[in-house]
Amino acid sequence: MNKIGFNVLAWSAVISDDLKPILDRLKAIGYDGVEFLIGSPDEAAYKRIGNYAKNIGLETTTVFVVGQDENPISDDAATRGKALDRIKWAIDRAYDLNASVICGPFHSAHAVFAKRAPLEQEYTWGAEVLRVAGDYAAKANIVMGLEALNRFECYLCNTMEQLTKLIKTADHPNVRAMFDTHHANIEEKNFTQAIQTIAPVLAHVHISENDRGTPGDGHINFDEAFAALAGINYKGWLTIEAFSRNDPDFANSIGVWREYSKPWDIAEKGLKFIQEMGQKHGL
Question: Which domains does the chain have, with CATH numbers?
Answer without folding.
Answer: 4-281 (3.20.20.150)
